[in-house]
Amino acid sequence: MTARTLLLLPGDGIGPEAMAEVRKIIAYMNAERGAGFETDEGLVGGSAYDAHGAAISEGDMKKALAADAVLFGAVGGPKWDAVPYEVRPEAGLLRLRKDLKLFANLRPAICYPALASASSLKPELVEGLDILIVRELTGGVYFGEPKEIIDLGNGQKRGIDTQVYDTYEIERIAGVAFELARTRQNRVCSMEKRNVMKSGVLWNQVVTETHKRSYSDVQLEHMLADAGGMQLVRAPKQFDVIVTDNLFGDMLSDVAAMLTGSLGMLPSASLGAPDAKGQRKALYEPVHGSAPDIAGKGIANPIAMIASFAMCLRYSFNMVADADNLEKAIAEVLDSGIRTGDIMAEGCRKVGTAEMGDAILAAFRKLSA
Ligand code: NAD
Ligand code: IPM
Ligand code: MN
Prior knowledge:
Layout: E1 4-11, H1 15-33, E2 37-41, H2 46-52, H3 58-66, E3 69-74, H4 89-99, E4 104-110, H5 123-126, E5 130-136, E6 144-151, E7 157-162, H6 167-182, E8 187-192, H7 198-214, E9 219-224, H8 225-234, E10 241-244, H9 246-259, E11 267-271, E12 282-286, H10 303-315, H11 320-335, E13 338-339, E14 349-350, H12 353-368
Parallel strand pairs: 1-2, 1-3, 3-12, 5-10, 8-9, 8-10, 13-14
Antiparallel strand pairs: 4-5, 4-11, 6-7, 11-12
Helix pairs in contact: 1-10, 1-12, 6-7, 8-9, 10-11, 11-12
The structure holds nicotinamide-adenine-dinucleotide, 3-isopropylmalic acid and manganese (II) ion (MN).
């Protein structure tokens, strides 16, 4: 069997703590299931800055470009608050997304039945919730030029960010959303702000045309992004697939994450376009950050990281049964009442990061037997 190559970039804060739990699962799959994962490790974020003075080294960028998939923990933290903007920890993640051309960010928000009461919304609003946010990841205001602070010379400065979208960028992300909708409830809601933004007008037009041309079997709805945020907390189950730009997708996916009980639950996949052999570059990461407030304590929830690895099994290696089993293992462990602090509820047993990882691995082993 050809090797499956994985680059692990644990990063900062709780990133390495969560990654340690995925490493255990990989070791088990290699030792007992002959999965043939070949892993390499690199530094990203503050840890890379401390070692190389850059948020990711050229060597690690090369490794990322060569790997079948990248597993990413989290970056950032107060230790690096004062480092120059160009080499801040988050720049490492943005460079990976840009250079690997990972334009499609899939952020599922699924409410596990056992966690309905951990949501900030009433349980009946989130029970059975299963939505997928498809966030454009390599364009928009994150990367548009000019992006600068200029001195106006009169004691004033001007901060400039530029929102830019070209037709092809909107077409390809809309295509991803429509394709995925066909495997789900066949519904897409596109969110922009066409009432104030020219890029929003174009977004709306291109999504509409793409739908008409190739996906008219899918139900399409448009919503202004602010109203979309409101609808997400009013009646989240109305949505199936949401497609939106880079910045709105960032904000709406944090909102969606809390609906599921904790930011510590949400995985994500960032995918590039398929090459001639049908293979695509990919990076998998939790939606949460480095959680400086709980880092180093061994109490972070590793589920978002483990579920990100499940997405990796599904999207990069077509190991669908394993992905299903790993997700089922997470659900079983939650059903059994085991909880990290962020999702703790009355009558449940509170555990740390490693114990949660061990419990999920044990359930996964049983399901895989
Ligand atoms: P955060 O996601 O790190 O934390 C927000 C809150 O959620 C904190 O109270 C934290 O303790 C909690 N939380 C997050 N993940 C958790 C988990 N797995 N288990 C339990 N609790 C969890 O967001 P923030 O505090 O706004 O940002 C901290 C740093 O992380 C910043 O430097 C930010 O830029 C960075 N960040 C990085 C990424 C990434 O690497 N992909 C994403 C978001 C933020
Ligand atoms: C995310 C994060 C990143 C983003 C940061 C860390 C650059 O918030 O992945 O959601 O804004 O995209
Ligand atoms: Mn974010």
